[in-house]
Specification:
By secondary structure, this protein is mostly helical. The chain has helices spanning 2-57, 60-71, 75-86, 90-100. The radius of gyration is 27 Å and the shape is rod-shaped.
């Protein structure tokens, strides 16, 4: 019986520390998430705005060439063209090509 008490008493502080670490980590993670979500939302708005601005400022020639590629089913080539002409990242070029599709907003 004494061995069980000794074994149990040595595990109790370890289990308490693990439980405390879990609770604190969970609490900190929960509090950090809203800030991360707000930052993601701000980035999405900034990207959306820049896509709108890029689309508005896109040259008619580029719009025609990319639109023709999209209409012919060559969306990847249109994205490559947009990236080469405007120097945008892949996501922004994809968003621009989506906006150039017939029926897009």
């Amino acid at each position: 019986m004494q061995q069980v008490d000794g074994l149990l008493s040595s595990w109790v502080p370890l289990l308490a520390a693990l439980l405390l670490g879990y609770v604190v980590g969970h609490w900190r993670g929960r509090n950090a998430r809203p800030e991360a979500r707000k930052a993601e939302a701000r980035d999405a708005v900034a990207t959306e705005r820049s896509v709108d601005e890029l689309l508005r400022d896109m040259s008619p020639d580029l719009r025609t060439r990319a639109g023709a590629l999209i209409a012919d089913g060559h969306a990847i080539d249109a994205i490559k063209l947009i990236r080469a002409e405007l120097g945008t990242d892949l996501k922004t070029a994809k968003d621009l090509s989506d906006r150039l599709r017939p029926g897009a907003r």
